[in-house]
Design brief:
By secondary structure, this protein is of the alpha+beta class. About 40% of the residues lie in helices and about 15% in strands. It has a two-stranded antiparallel sheet.
Length: about 70
């Protein structure tokens, strides 16, 4: 399952448009720290240098700009 699949499922389940956005490392950390994640933890959860940028789903259950993970 890809993030595009998760976005499509979230759109269908919620009945509203959910958009996949990609954040670079600086944007990821800048979003996580004000939300209460310690900067050191935010840095350990962003993508490693050899990986693609971190992905977030905007408009999910937490509102615009929040990150979500697929259900377990």
């Amino acid at each position: 399952m890809t993030f595009n699949d998760v976005t499509a499922l979230a759109t269908k389940a919620s009945g509203r448009e959910v958009e996949r956005i990609t954040l670079d490392d600086k944007e990821w950390i800048a979003a996580k720290v004000p939300a209460g994640t310690p900067e050191a933890m935010a840095r350990t959860t962003h993508s490693p240098p050899s990986s693609p940028p971190a992905t977030a789903v905007a408009g999910g259950a937490g509102g615009p700009g929040t990150t979500t993970a697929p259900p377990r």
